[in-house]
Amino acid sequence: MASAAWAVLQVLLLLPTHAWSPVGAGRPPDCDAPLASALPRSSFSSSSELSSSHGPGFSRLNRRDGAGGWTPLVSNKYQWLQIDLGERMEVTAVATQGGYGSSDWVTSYLLMFSDGGRNWKQYRREESIWSEVVYFDGQSALLYKLDKKPLKPVRDVISLKFKAIQSNGILLHREGQHGNHITLELIKGKLVFFLNSGNAKLPTTIAPVTLTLGSLLDDQHWHSVLIELLDTQVNFTVDKHTHHFQAKGESSYLDLNFEISFGGIPTSGRAWAFTRQSFHGCLENLYYNGVDVTELAKKHKPQILMMGNVSFSCPQPQTVPVTFLSSRSYLALPGNSGEDKVSVTFQFRTWNRAGHLLFGELQRGSGSFVLFLKDGKLKLSLFQPGQSPRNVTAGAGLNDGQWHSVSLSAKWSHMNVVVDDDTAVQPLLAVLIDSGDTYYFGGCLDNSSGSGCKSPLGGFQGCLRLITIGDKAVDPISVQQGALGSFRDLQIDSCGITDRCLPSYCEHGGTCSQSWDSFSCDCLGTGYTGETCHSSLYEQSCEAHKHRGDPSGLYYIDADGSGPLGPFLVYCNMTDAAWTVVRHGGPDAVTVRGAPSGHPRSAVSFAYAASAGQLRAAVSLAERCEQRLALRCGTARRPDSRDGTPLSWWVGRTNETHTYWGGSLPDAQKCTCGLEGNCIDSQYYCNCDAGRNEW
Q1: Residue 8 backbone phi and psi in degrees, to 5
Q2: Better-scored residue on pLDDT, 105 or 460
Q3: Residues with Cβ within 8 Å of residue 77, at least 6 apart in sequence
Q4: CB neighbours of residue 126 within 10 Å
Q5: So what family is this one in (predicted)?
Q6: Rounded Cα distance, 519 and 632, in Å
Q7: Which segments of 402-476 are extended strands (E)?
Q8: Any residues with CB less than 8 A from the CB of 80 and at least 6 apart, and which?
Q9: What does the alpha-carbon distance between residue 372 and residue 358 come to, in Å, rounded to a whole number?
């Protein structure tokens, strides 16, 4: 086996194309019987082997022959071990062990399976054997009526797993009488949690909270969700990524109604209706404060009201996506040759702004067409003999990673292209349309010479699904098995799109954008530069400006360099030293009038142009730091109590209270003149105590 330092192995299970059926075998399969140990050595193959005694045939469990296991030539994530099971099997468990007589083992691996050995699908641990599942068809919901005995303080815990068929829909909703509500909604494949405490005019209500987690969650895989609510504290977790949030204000969560809906937001009336798009997909292990909501629904308990078509099994997805892995990928499919029309529909998703999507030739010399993405828009170019190429554009922002529907049709004098709800029409010459023999999706064969087939934009990288040509749906599994069309560099039966901007590696507020293979950061307006907006555009201190020969003046500095703190405006006073002056937003002098005895008054607060963190960073760079706060008085004694307790003070940056003023020392109980012995009245330690009619 590979050494412990090697982290990833691909285990590939090859399942032949003929179907396996336990019914045809006359008895259910024995899923506890070992599979690999009974296979011949020829059923095992690998990416490489260290030596003939380390070959893949020695990889069966509990064997001592050879070197005691399979070991690849190199230890990296590209090594694989393939097992041909001989016939289609139901695999219920996979076990690995270290090499016999050695301390080498695999720490983690990917498990993939295939029917024909050309295209592999990764197995994901999604299904749990003992679980409660409920299916919503996009027009249904469950209404759960809660116990009307709330506990104080209220702590709500909601947990579930979901598998989405559509990219938008309400997963759960609970509301109150005054507009307050909590909602969990899938929006364009991202999960958004809304918390609104109601009437914003009330001072005790918290500001609306919107938390977003996840991306591409409409991939028809299971995703886990955990929501924990305790007063104003929210913990929101999606697939092990948690957002902790502490809302400001006081919670009115207790004002929520004693019912919560799952799958949609129903409105009562003669017939149930839904105010927003409902969820289409499956929920599993749905718990509210430890209560199995799905089990209550299955048993038709009175706490549950089912609306619409709710069922308790999760259907397998009927769509089979195809991933175009590189710019050289293509899928060639037969056209409906001989028909007097062109009709092609499909859905696609991608991050790329440009790429060649579809090429086809029209028969009888009537021309050809190319459908491609450019600048995130779908364009149709039409080539006809004796005519300049004609182009139409439909859609915009189509490289957003979402599924988009395309319909291309031509008959007689017009060719139409529809993207989602955007339609574009291109007139044709008055010739008889005859559909071509082959349509090329993504790219073309290397020896293709048709007009427009070779595109400088490169081939399409992304996913396609629901392809129809004429009135016939294309079965990608038939393509995979070699019974239909041809292809190159495709991944069939999965969409391999990933979100490279989640999490975003762009720092300091940089905007992340991505293509199929990479991501980039837009640093405009952030004050930072570099691949990930890491390097600050500003000097770290006034000292750095002085070394550059800059004169005194206002400058932005970034005290922590490339750290999380942003730049802020200071005045650099270039004397013998470089003084950094951070100004506050108030006036230089503020008149403070006394308050009745026993009624302290907060006179004035100073807000600086820098945050507390920025100030601390600037202070840490300085050799010396000064802050002067002076108290001047006219016909007023220094405000102390009769027993000498100070009645005036100021509060520092760490919220500590001080009673000394500019030029004095802590706990001296004297002003500067008292320390220096030059007060205007020698019997006092502060000029204010003299009571003179002057400042």
Answers
A1: -130, 135
A2: 460
A3: 7, 8
A4: 12
A5: Belongs to the neurexin family.
A6: 59
A7: 404-411, 414-419, 422-427, 438-441, 462-469, 472-473
A8: 9, 10, 11, 12, 46, 47
A9: 7
User: Is 415 within 8 Å of 335 (Cβ atoms)?
Assistant: no
CA dihedral in degrees (521, 455, 323, 213; nearest 10)?
A: 20
Q: According to the 3-state scheme, what is the secondary structure of 332-376?
A: EEECCCCCCCEEEEEEEECCCCCEEEEEEEECCCCEEEEEEEECC
Nearest to 393 by CA among 404, 380, 406, 408: 380
pLDDT band at 500 (very low <50, low <70, confident <90, very high): very high
- Tell me the C-alpha to C-alpha distance, in Å, between residue 651 and each of 231, 385, 647, 659, 660: 31, 84, 13, 9, 11
Question: CB neighbours (10 Å) of residue 397?
Answer: 11
Give the Cα separation of 156 and 160 in Å (integer).
Answer: 13
Q: Is the pLDDT of residue 34 over 90?
A: no
Structure tokens belonging to residue 135 = 């299916």
550: left (phi over 0), alpha (psi -120 to 50) or beta: beta
Q: Distance between CA 485 and CA 503 in Å, rounded?
A: 39
Task: Read off the DSSP letter of residue 54.
Answer: G
Residue 595 has pLDDT above 70, yes or no: no
The strand pair at 80-84 and 8-14 is best described as: parallel
Q: C-alpha angle 89/163/330, rounded to 5°?
A: 70
Using the CB atoms, write b or e for 540-551: b if 16+ within 10 Å. Answer: bbbbbbbeeeee
The partner residues of 370 in beta bridges, in order of sequence, read 359, 381
> What does pLDDT average to over the chain?
81
Strands 390-394 and 404-411: unpaired
On whether the CB atoms of residues 536 and 527 are closer than 8 A, the answer is: yes
